[in-house]
TrEMBL record:
<dbReference type="InterPro" id="IPR011711">
    <property type="entry name" value="GntR_C"/>
</dbReference>
<keyword id="KW-0238">DNA-binding</keyword>
<dbReference type="GO" id="GO:0003700">
    <property type="term" value="F:DNA-binding transcription factor activity"/>
</dbReference>
<protein>
    <submittedName>
        <fullName>GntR family transcriptional regulator</fullName>
    </submittedName>
</protein>
<feature type="domain" description="HTH gntR-type">
    <location>
        <begin position="8"/>
        <end position="76"/>
    </location>
</feature>
<dbReference type="InterPro" id="IPR036388">
    <property type="entry name" value="WH-like_DNA-bd_sf"/>
</dbReference>
<keyword id="KW-0805">Transcription regulation</keyword>
<dbReference type="InterPro" id="IPR000524">
    <property type="entry name" value="Tscrpt_reg_HTH_GntR"/>
</dbReference>
<dbReference type="GO" id="GO:0003677">
    <property type="term" value="F:DNA binding"/>
</dbReference>
<dbReference type="InterPro" id="IPR008920">
    <property type="entry name" value="TF_FadR/GntR_C"/>
</dbReference>
<dbReference type="Pfam" id="PF07729">
    <property type="entry name" value="FCD"/>
</dbReference>
<dbReference type="InterPro" id="IPR036390">
    <property type="entry name" value="WH_DNA-bd_sf"/>
</dbReference>
<dbReference type="Pfam" id="PF00392">
    <property type="entry name" value="GntR"/>
</dbReference>
<keyword id="KW-0804">Transcription</keyword>
Length: 230
């Protein structure tokens, strides 16, 4: 085993041990880690391995290093932890965007069905405004922003923060696809609003299966266009 590989293995071991302290409940959200020297000795790790593990866990928002104060466990909420997903999505090339649409097609119909039984009158009213808030000559940026707000609003209506964070995380790649569609396909605004209205009608009626079906058709329509445009 090379020196670099051995060092990585020790860092991985340190990451696992810190993770176990969190999953066991010994460390909770907002707690401060023991001092580096004490923690290294207790876990049977070198201070270098521990330091590298802390760096890695800071990058994925599990730990927060506050200089002059110490290292803390973050809030561990889903939005915070899934920031790393957004970063990963943004690094993907445009030719992998279809994979993200496949994920959306798996997730969003179920999200729409869930929203049908949970949406509030206030959220419903907000989403209705979005379906009447675009003119036929709206710019591509306006269409994209409206679409993102609509889908985010339906996710919020479920009351499930993990769902919201997951869909936020995969929006980076799909946002570019929406821009391509708006630029190259005539009638994108009218069709998008019509599909959004049909989804919302089903949600308002409390018809989970119709909401699921309309959302499936909506996502599949964009995905099919992308496949033909490649």
């Amino acid at each position: 085993m090379g020196r670099h590989t051995e060092r990585m293995a020790l860092t991985d071991e340190a990451i696992v041990k810190i993770k176990e302290m969190i999953t066991s409940g010994e460390l909770g959200p907002g707690d401060r880690l023991p001092k580096e020297a004490d923690l290294a000795a207790r876990l049977g790790l070198s201070r270098n391995s521990l330091r590298e593990a802390v760096k890695a866990l800071t990058l994925v928002n599990v730990l927060d290093v506050r200089h002059g104060d110490g290292t803390y466990v973050t809030s561990l909420d889903s939005a915070h932890l899934l920031d790393a997903l957004s970063f990963m999505v943004d690094l993907h090339r445009d030719d992998s965007v279809l994979q993200f649409f496949e994920v959306r097609r798996l997730l969003e119909p179920g999200v729409a069905a869930l929203a049908a039984g949970r949406i509030s009158r206030e959220k419903l009213a907000d989403l209705r405004l979005l379906t009447s808030d675009l003119a036929a000559g709206a710019s591509v940026d306006e269409l994209v922003a409206n679409d993102l707000r609509f889908h985010r609003g339906i996710a919020e209506a479920t009351g499930n923060g993990v769902v919201c964070s997951l869909l936020d995380g995969i929006s980076g790649a799909t946002q570019r696809a929406r821009i391509w569609r708006g630029v190259t396909e005539a009638g994108a605004v009218e069709r998008t609003l019509a599909e959004h209205t049909a989804i919302l009608d089903a949600i308002e009626a409390g018809d989970a299966e119709a909401a699921r079906a309309w959302m499936t058709a909506h996502i599949a329509g964009v995905e099919n266009w992308l496949r033909k445009a490649r």
